[in-house]
Design brief:
Order of helices and strands: HHH
Distance between the termini: 20 Å
Number of strands: 0
Structural class: mainly alpha
Helix content: 55-70%
Length: 65
């Protein structure tokens, strides 16, 4: 089965974009980890978050997320 037949566009009635929900989640995790006593590489986290958000936004533009 090809990828095109396995992934179908999501309904357009979603209240919030997946990327918006993910960004809110990432910010909450960022603050929690930043305020914990564990070692935390803020720059690496932000970079990874931005890469993931860019991919999600691309999928949203294609109607796949």
């Amino acid at each position: 089965m090809s990828l095109e037949t396995e992934i179908k566009p999501l309904p357009s009635y979603r209240q919030k974009a997946v990327s918006e929900e993910f960004a809110v989640y990432c910010e909450a995790v960022f603050e929690r980890r930043r305020n914990s006593e564990e070692d935390f590489d803020e720059a690496a986290y932000r970079e990874a978050m931005e890469l993931a958000l860019a991919r999600l936004r691309k999928l949203e533009e294609e109607g796949l997320a």
